[in-house]
Specification:
Layout: H1 2-30, H2 52-57, H3 77-97, H4 101-115, H5 123-154, H6 160-175, H7 181-190, H8 204-243, H9 251-265, H10 268-278
């Protein structure tokens, strides 16, 4: 029995030795090897380029190229698509800041708050109404932008910079009459610039925030005027309830039907929307 165990150990040692020898013989055939001249990912060693064309030929397999023009000074198609998508993403901000949308939507919200109808009309209706009114007011400006900037640019008559300036011209002409001089002076003073009272000397970076501040001021003034008749109704209802000893009854519960009645009899939506639209003409 002892002799058999000794023979088995010898056999296992011999097998282990043969396995090690086989591994040593196999390793050189599967080991890493240097790339040949045809397998290299670069054409010339580093530091041998003498011109821009030579630089383009180096490491050709590792290049990542973005073409920004198509050879005639115009933006390449993919980059134009990227810029277009970016402008589409920024379109809501441009709509709010450079059009009549701000004034209209604030006035509509003031009207709903003065009526005290809570969520009637709902926000979706007010936003849709403000959008359509904005398109109605801005239609001449948008038409001018299309004719003076988009059409010539698509026809190849002007370049991108000229198209941008042509598009900003009608917008600046729209914003300037609706911007108060004191707001322009405020931002011109902050930017340490001088203004002679002409539109041409106002940079767009000053005109746009000045226009926004002026729109907010105008919208709040209109909202205050809208509130006045409804405040009078609240005061009359509150005084009447106190005289009748019904002090526990909230005056707003009684005054809201009278507000709605007054608003309907006076054709309030026609008056408010018509007055707001006319402020831009």
């Amino acid at each position: 029995m002892t002799r058999r165990l000794g023979n088995r150990k010898r056999i296992l040692k011999i097998l282990c030795l043969l396995t090690l020898v086989g591994i040593f013989f196999i390793m050189p055939s599967v080991g890493a090897h240097a790339t040949t001249e045809q397998e290299r990912t670069f054409n010339d060693p580093s530091g041998t380029a003498t011109s821009q064309d030579d630089l383009r030929e180096l490491n050709v397999a590792n290049q990542f190229i973005i073409t920004y023009d198509d050879g005639d000074g115009q933006l390449a198609g993919p980059l134009r698509i990227l810029i277009t998508l970016t402008l589409i993403a920024l379109a809501p901000f441009l709509l709010i800041t450079m059009t009549s949308f701000t004034r209209i939507v604030i006035v509509l919200h003031f009207t709903r708050a003065a009526l005290n109808t809570q969520s009637a009309p709902p926000n979706q209706v007010l936003m849709a109404l403000a959008l359509f009114l904005t398109f109605f007011i801005m239609q001449p400006t948008l038409t001018q932008i299309y004719e003076e900037a988009i059409v010539p640019f698509e026809a190849g008559e002007i370049v991108q910079s000229e198209a941008f300036e042509a598009a900003m011209g009608p917008l600046r002409d729209f914003m300037y009459p609706n911007t108060m001089a004191k707001d322009v002076n405020l931002f011109m003073t902050i930017s340490n610039a001088e203004w002679n009272g002409q539109l041409e000397t106002i940079p767009s970076s000053v005109l746009i925030p000045s226009f926004i501040v002026s729109e907010l001021r105008t919208a709040f003034i209109i909202g205050f005027i809208i509130y006045i008749p409804f405040i009078v109704i609240d005061m009359v209802i509150a005084s009447t309830l106190m005289a009748m000893g019904m002090m526990m009854l909230p005056p707003t519960v009684i005054s809201m039907p009278f507000k709605i009645l007054l608003f309907v009899l006076a054709d309030g939506w026609n008056l408010i929307i018509g007055s707001v639209v006319k402020t831009f003409y």
